[in-house]
C-alpha cells in the first residue's frame, strides 16, 4: 500500500507508540508527551504590490515545554497545514532530546509559495507574522525561538529579529529570539554546512563501530566506502563534500531532473557548477546518465544518503535498495513499510530524527552566543596560539629538530568560531549515536535504530516531566 490512511501527525504518533512499549512510564505521562501543548492558528491581511488585499493563513505550534524555550523552523509553503506543523513540532521535541539540546519542540508555517511574492511582500508578511507572535507571547529568547526551514533563510530571520527588537525596546537578549540569522546580525559561523556535517559525523560514528560493520560485511571506517547522495541542495551538497574529503567515493548523485553515476567518484562542486551552467546534472563529463532520478536509490553502494524529499523509499522500491547503510538526511525519506523491508534485508537505516539534527544543534550554539554577547573563540584564540607556539619552540629547541610547515600551522592554530562550532557538533553527534546504539544493544527486542532513537527521546522527556514534578 503506497498511501497512508493516517495523517503525518498520526504517523509520528504511531512511531512513538511503537517505541513507548519499550519504556516503563505511566501511560498518562506518555499521553502528555505526545500531545501538542499549544497550537496558534492565525489569519492576517497583507496589501499586495498591485494594491489588492490578501488574507494570509499561518501557524505556530509549541509541542512541549518540558524544556524552555521551544525551538523549530518556520516554513513558507503552499503545503503548510495544521497537521504538518504539529507533526514537525513533535519531531523537534524528540530530536532535541536525542541530541541533548535543552529545548522543547516548536514549528511554524505560513501557507504561501514564496516564488509568487515580491521581496517587499515577503518582508511585509514575515514582519506581520512576527508581530502576531509577539502579541500572543509566542516568540522570545526564553519562550519560543524560530529558525529557517523550507522557503526561508537568513534574510527572513533578519526581518524577524528586527521586528522583535523594535517591539521589545531595551530587551538585551533580543537577538536570541530567532536563529539562522546572518553573521552580521548575531548569526554563528558554521551554520550553513551544519546539517550535512552532522549527517557525516553520525554515519562516520556508526562506521567506526566494529560489531555493526561486521554484521553487514563492511570494513570499519569511512575510507573507500561507496556513497550515493540524492539531492544536491544545501544538505546533500555538504554531505557529499564531507564524505569525499574523508576518503569515501561518491559514485552517484541525483536531482529531480535525473541522476548520474561514476564508479571512480564524483566531485560535488564540479557537478554543482555543471548544473548551474547547463541547468541539469545530466551529461556531466565522465559520468553515466540514469534515466529516472529514483534509479540512484537502487545503485550498488555501501551508504545511501536521501537528502531530498519525504517518502522517496517506500514499500514499492525498498526491495530493490542495495545499500548496506541508509543515512536519512532529509525529513522522513523512508516510509514505515520501507523500514520493515530494511529489517528483513539487514539494511541499517540511521534515522532522520537525530541524523539531521546538525541544524538545531548549531542553532543552539547560536542562541548561546546571543545570550553571552561574545563570539566563540574571541577570548581564547590568541592565548591558545601563544601557548602552542611556546610549547613547539621549546620542543624544537630541546630536540634540535624542526616540525614541518603544515604540522606547524596545525599545532599553532588557535580555534576560531567555526572550529569550535564544528567541534561542538562532532561531540553532539558522536554522543547521540552511542546513546542510541547502547539502548538498541541492551534491548534486543527493539526492532530498529529508529525505534531505539524514539525510546531514547521518550526516556529523556518523561524523566524531565517526572523530575519537574508536573505529575504529583
Descriptive overview:
The protein has 16 helices and twelve strands. By secondary structure, the protein is of the alpha/beta class. Among the domains are: about 150 residues, 3-Layer(aba) Sandwich (Rossmann fold), CATH 3.40.50; about 160 residues, NAD(P)-binding Rossmann-like Domain (Rossmann fold, 3-Layer(aba) Sandwich), CATH 3.40.50.720. It has a seven-stranded mixed β-sheet with strand order 9-8-7-6-10-11-12. β7 and β8 form a beta hairpin. α1 packs across α16, α6 packs across α8 and α6 packs across α12. The longest helix is centred in the last third of the chain and has 26 residues. The mean pLDDT is about 95.
Structure keywords:
472 residues, alpha/beta, Rossmann fold, 5-stranded mixed beta sheet, 16 helices
State the total count of DSSP E strands.
Answer: 12
| Helix and strand pattern | HHEEEHEHEHHHEHEEHEEEHEHHHHHH
The percent range for strand residues is: 5-15%
The CATH topology of the domain at 194-355 is Rossmann fold
CATH class placement of the domain at 194-355:
Alpha Beta
**What overall form do the CA principal axes indicate?**
globular
CATH superfamily of the domain at 194-355: NAD(P)-binding Rossmann-like Domain
Which structural category do the helix and sheet elements fall into?
A: alpha/beta
What's the architecture of the domain at 194-355, going by CATH? Answer: 3-Layer(aba) Sandwich
Spatial order of the strands in the main sheet?
Answer: 9-8-7-6-10-11-12
Low-confidence stretches at least 5 residues in length (pLDDT < 50)?
Answer: none
